[in-house]
Amino acid sequence: MMRHAKAEPFATSDRDRVLTARGRKDAHEAGAYLAREAVVPDYAVVSSAVRTRQTWEEVAQGSGSTAAVQVDESVFTGSSPEVVMDVLRGLPEQATRAIFVGHNPAIAQVVHLLDDGNADPEAMRGILSGYPVAALTVLEVGGTWSELGPAAGRIVSFHVGTG
After folding, report:
1. What are residue 97's phi and psi, to 5 degrees?
2. Of 99, 119, 130, 156, which has the maximum CB count within 10 A?
3. From CA 101, how far away is CA 148, in angstroms rounded?
4. 2-6+17-114+145-159: which CATH architecture?
5. Residue 150 gets which letter from DSSP?
6. Domain boundaries, the chain
7. What percent of the chain has pLDDT over 70?
8. How far apart are CA 161 and CA 19, in angstroms?
9. pLDDT band at 162, cuts 50/70/90?
């Protein structure tokens, strides 16, 4: 679960906001983190906003991922925990390591919703201190995507860019 990286504050529309240089760096660094942790995604769900698509591009470059990508309009227009959970339940069953790149507060809310109460203590401390831009939570989830529900995952790690 990843919140998009730092974007410019204004554009012709909210959808069109692009990443700043810091945002590109942090997203690329997040991808390198995924590669170091050996959790490179094979499937990506990305909001249709420019900043989330650019975040994913940098993560993919940094991690070396060649994941199948699903750009989802509903994640931008209806960014709520319910929408995110519905999208996650619709992931293809062959997706073994998926990444979801979206917006707050939905991302942080879904991370808390999926937490089974056995989170890595250091990761949970980071999450509880806030969910800034380019924040990335790695969860281990059991069962099938279609059955995904509350407390279905263990928070393994939390990464925030150095900005």
Report:
1. -135, 100
2. 99
3. 18
4. 3-Layer(aba) Sandwich (3.40)
5. T
6. 2-6+17-114+145-159
7. 99
8. 14
9. confident
